[in-house]
What does this fold into?
Amino acid sequence: MQLSKARIQEHNQPLLASHQLRLNLLSEELSERGVAVRDLIQRLVDFQVAIPSWALGTGGTRFGRYAGVGEPQSLEQKIEDVGLLHALNRSSGAISLHIPWDIPENAAHIKALMQEHDLAFDAMNSNTFQDQRDQQHSYKFGSLSHTDAAVRKQAVEHNLEVIRYGEELGSKALTVWLADGSSFPGQRNFRTVLQNTYESLREIYAALPADWKVFVEYKPFEPYFYSTVIQDWGTSFLLANKLGDKAYTLVDLGHHLPNANIEQIVATLLMEGKLGGFHFNDSKYADDDLTVGSIKPYQLYLIFLELVHGMDDPQTNNPPISYMIDASHNLKDPLEDLLQSVEAIQLAYAQALLVDKQALEAARADNDVVGAQEILQNAFRTDVRPLVREAFRQAGGALDPLGLYRKLDVRRQLYDERGVGIATGL
Ligand code: AOS
Ligand code: ZN
Ligand code: ZN
Ligand code: ZN
It folds into this structure.
């Protein structure tokens, strides 16, 4: 289904007066606090976060899966779903594909469809954590790190194939998330598997087009429960450094052991110019892939503060970061969840933009612990929703994307169109 500009206008019209009132009130207060409101809103308008193709269908747990309805059955339908999200909030103008779940049969047709929806391709994702039909070697005991050179070769070749698909479509990055690990002490020689992984990655790196990047994602455990080969940001950073300028670390918020100081990891990677990709989600226990900002909104804000201050610092030499939502939904309508996630990201971003950097640095220089904390908390405790809504509106989106989605009864329409089938690739 397509969402016309006229339909969005029609939705915004009755909400406009009360929105304007709230926005004016907040703008006045913020101007008094020295915030350049118009510039801030423009930064929100410019911010884009990619949607992964696998977040569009209902996920499952290892105990089972409840079918959703109206889920996309093809790459075309996935693009249509992201196009709909983007029409609603104008902040999700990119899609991240996964091979072999999203093999583009006809690249020209797919590119035309992308253009129609004003979408770009974010990083391509390879998959060496599942065995595919007709695959010669199994990844049961690893892929890029495998003890058998033939398996490593097959996994490298798969990644090269993903790069080729990405080139056809106009993507500029490859994300490697490696499930490789072990479930019992003694199962693996830590040094051998890391060395194997490095050598495999080197072959992939050598095949990267000149204007491409590779993102190395880390994760402390799961699907294996004793060790993973790329367990933490240090290991990812080490590999990225050894590989070269086109290799970067990717931070997924759910891939840390409890209470890790993720904002500090972000700051360190930015200092080194090595933060390439970002997967947003939220978690209470581990890689829960819950809605962004639903469990730890203050942490999300602190992370955004590091992203904003780090990227704005002229001394930082980090390329633009590929932002993506990496979530999975068992209970919610996936599209509703993604609308909530995008909004949560924009809210945290807006709060981070409120912080007076100079005042914060002055408090730090004075060792004014309370003062510095107050500056951070004041920004966090500001209700910035009018700013985010205004950014959606200025960009041509809905003042209340979720409200409009519900009013249009989108899921019902998708169900009529597509039926009950399970989304492809999940
Ligand atoms: C897995 O835990 C990682 O978060 C991956 O980034 C991603 O979810 C996966 O590649 C999708 O299958
Ligand atoms: Zn991820
Ligand atoms: Zn994950
Ligand atoms: Zn995750």
Q: What stands out?
A: The mean pLDDT is 97. The domain at 5-418 is CATH 3.20.20.150 (TIM Barrel). The CA atoms of residues 179 and 222 lie 7 Å apart. Residues 252, 254-255, 287, 326 surround zinc ion (ligand 3) (CB under 6 Å).
